[in-house]
Amino acid sequence: MDKISKKGLLAVSFGTSVNASREKTIDAIEADFKEAFPDYTLYRAWTSRVIIEKLKKRDGIQIDTVGEALERMLADGVTEVVVQPTHVISGIENEQMTADILTYRDQFAAVRFGTPLLVNEEDFCAVIKAVMTEFKHISREEALVFMGHGTPHNANSTYSVLSQKLKDMGYENVFLGTVESGPSINILMQQVHAYGAKRVTLAPFMVVAGDHALNDMSGDDKDSWRKQLEASGFIVNCVLKGLGEYPGIRRLYIKHIQDAIERAALRL
Description:
Layout: E1 7-13, H1 19-24, H2 26-36, E2 41-46, H3 49-59, H4 66-75, E3 80-85, H5 92-102, E4 110-113, H6 121-134, E5 142-148, H7 157-168, E6 174-178, H8 185-195, E7 199-204, H9 211-217, H10 225-231, E8 235-238, H11 247-267
Parallel strand pairs: 1-2, 1-3, 3-4, 5-6, 5-7, 7-8
Helix pairs in contact: 2-11, 6-11
């Protein structure tokens, strides 16, 4: 076991029950965190209790909740905590995570938060660059359609801001919707038809290529995005690759950790 540091880095993810995607995304992100911050002991927590229970029952894998991870850090003698969520936006999951952690604030000497993936203009540009580097083979005659998760939280507007930023940066053939909120697949299909593309590459705009990507996006059910696009006359290619697989995305999370540490240093 690694020697316990007084400084702990807590990586918080929603989680996934798709182990193959977890290994390529959440595990890869955390491995990069560990390499980038060797002075910190790395801890993991997931916010989805449903997924935590599923893995425990199905695979015998124990994943800490946020509270359990903080209790573990206290027991290990950690005094300084940096929290880095792998959440894409500052929505419900991120707010609940923050609230849970703040109840422990007085039990640590310091608690610092890195931001989710998309918070400011710099993030938007960095994310677009990282993602579009992976899809530079897409021709202008094709459409690239991303499926985000979406949320009833007002932070869902982040997806609209990112969509506009894509257009501002010249990616007229890239479209972004969400499975749980808007823009819906019906709106996206109208946009792709208006653009004039016949071929569509469909990819998740989520950290993991989990159940949503496998079922709601690329599944065989008639309501999946792939099936609806095909029924609308498009030739569809699905890319089952989560954002966590992209090196540029992992580097941005690391930058958010560095920013959190530097902000704290400036206040000293």
